[in-house]
Amino acid sequence: MSDPPFVIVSFALGLLRLVELRHSRANEIKAGIVGIPGAAASTYPAMVALNIALFTMPLFEPRRARPRRFIAGLLLALAATLRIWCIRSLGDQWNVRSAVPKELRVVGAGPYRFIRHPNYLAVAIEFCALPLFGGAARSAVVLSLANAAVLWHRVSAEETMLGRSPEYRRIMGDKARFIPGLL
User: Fold this and answer.
1) Which of 2, 52, 140, 149 is the most exposed place for a label (fewest CB within 10 A)?
2) What is the pTM of this model?
């Protein structure tokens, strides 16, 4: 496939993922949670595989129609901005494994003022928008459904773990998971 805009956007998003992994590892070391399993640790390998598929599967999908990049590009920019806002809001508590530090400080600022899981919302948007940016509609559907299945399990396990904290229940208990007032 020769699609320079898709390759450039995929490369930029992939680079962001690598920076996030490095940042996550530094946070895990700082918090002393290296090796401590996170919420739904069994889903982590599936999440890694899905992220690899996000960047590769659209490359192999035949595209008949020219992609409608404007909306997909806006969604990708929104998702990247939301992810960065989440990471900055959680500070040194943020990590990709959903490992919870012993000294949990519940964050109710930034995007967490509105919903409990804005980072997962950003991921869901990316799983739909990146393939659509490349004109790979089937990949967008398949990857989004697979991601939703993995996230459902992970979010449930994470909320069980976080729900043990009275502070978490007090600050986040009445907020929607992903969309304010709905879901």
Assistant:
1) 2
2) 0.92
